[in-house]
Specification:
The protein is an alpha/beta fold. It has one domain: Rossmann fold (3-Layer(aba) Sandwich). The chain contains six helices and six strands; from the N terminus they run αβαββαβαβαβα. A six-stranded mixed sheet has the order 2-3-1-4-5-6, sandwiched between helices. The structure holds guanosine-5'-triphosphate and magnesium ion. The site of magnesium ion has 5 residues, from helix 2. InterPro entries: P-loop_NTPase, Small_GTP-bd, Small_GTPase_ARF, Small_GTPase_ARF/SAR.
Length: about 180
């Protein structure tokens, strides 16, 4: 790792890993949070990393790692020192094989020793689209409640619905992160 990238990253002590299958909207979410703008879609072949400021100027570093099938085996190399996982799911993708892949990857992450006891924030993205699953479908298919108070595993796991292509979700995600990281209500 180059010296400048190392310096940039060590500026923030709170590392968030953003993972999920390819095309679910991770990169769009990252840059929506960072710039409040839409970026040209482009599959991530490596990773993107950005620092954001939460309340009280609390810096957090979000690592967005490519989710294509052949890239997923590389996720394990990014786990060290992770303090929170944002797991993104495309709520419009009803392909049973993709749903199973997404559940399997999430399950794998929940079982990694390096990620034990850290919060997982699950984002059901693309809720602006008419074919997006509703809360009941999400509950039935993923066994995850869109209930921010609910704890579904030994991890402190929270789930919410997002739209990466508008600014509607920016406040909502930042508030959620503040709640988990800083403890704000
Ligand atoms: N309508 C809608 N489209 C979205 C949303 N989020 C992402 N997209 C679109 O979905 C496509 C994939 O988004 P990306 O952010 O590149 O997906 P990714 O998860 O980073 O994919 P990989 O880099 O391959 O892992 C792009 O065309 C985005 O513009 C959303 O909330 N709503
Ligand atoms: Mg990407």
């Amino acid at each position: 790792m180059g010296q400048s990238l190392q310096q940039y990253i060590s500026y923030s002590d709170y590392k968030i890993l953003m993972l999920g299958l390819d095309g679910v909207g991770k990169t769009q979410l990252l840059y929506r949070l960072k710039t409040k703008k839409q970026i040209a879609p482009n599959p991530t072949t490596g990773f993107n990393v950005e620092i954001l400021q939460l309340k009280h100027k609390r810096p957090i570093t979000i690592w967005d790692i490519g989710g294509q099938e052949q890239r997923r085996e590389l996720w394990v190399h990014y786990l060290q020192n992770t303090q929170l996982v944002m797991y993104v799911i495309d709520s419009t993708d009803r392909d049973p094989d993709r749903i199973q892949q997404s559940k399997n990857e999430l399950e794998k992450l929940l079982n990694y020793e390096q990620l034990a006891n850290i919060p997982f924030v699950i984002l059901f993205n693309k809720t602006d689209l008419p074919q997006a699953m509703n809360n009941k479908e999400i509950q039935d298919i993923f066994k995850i409640s869109i209930d921010l108070k609910q704890i579904i595993t030994s991890h402190k796991t929270l789930a919410t619905k997002t739209t990466a292509t508008s600014n509607k979700s920016v406040k909502q995600i930042l508030k959620l992160l503040e709640r988990v990281i800083i403890g704000n209500k």
